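Running low. Any example?
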Amino acid sequence: MRLKFSLLLLSILSAMTIFAAPPVEEGKSIFISRCAACHNINKTLTGPALAGVDQRRSIDWIINFVHSSQSMVKNGDKDAVTLFNQFNNIPMPDHNDLTDAQIKNVVEYIKTEAKPVEEEKAPFAKPSKLRPNYTPLTANNYGFFIAFLSIIALLVGTLLFAVRVKEYERMVTGRE
């Protein structure tokens, strides 16, 4: 009897861990559905870029701000007021229905997606990243070569014609 109970308990626990979303996946789904309209992790949009938010602010501050940013602004929180003013006084919507654990999962997702800030280097520092601004010619571009040679022949013909016209004009007028 005890063995059956233990096996049942073990199977229930394993099913819960299999079907429960990992924290990062839950954070990703919340971020995409709620945050991505105004925020990007690595770029500033309507709201600030969120990469490194866990290093700039405490997790308690982040949770309070997500739950009600405007109450923090009204209470005079220096960082909240600065963000509000920096982003054209556009208020962030309140997300009171998110639990503290869900907000922490979003922060964990942001940590996994944040790209490290690379120093600006000269273009030749990463030659594999360079891409030419033109399409190189290949031997299969016969149309281009035929058109190019035709234009050259036309120019040479025009110059020869001009020389012949000038020679004829000199001959008619009697000037040498």
Q: What stands out?
A: DSSP finds eight helices and no strands in the chain. The mean pLDDT is 80. The two ends are 127 Å apart (CA to CA).
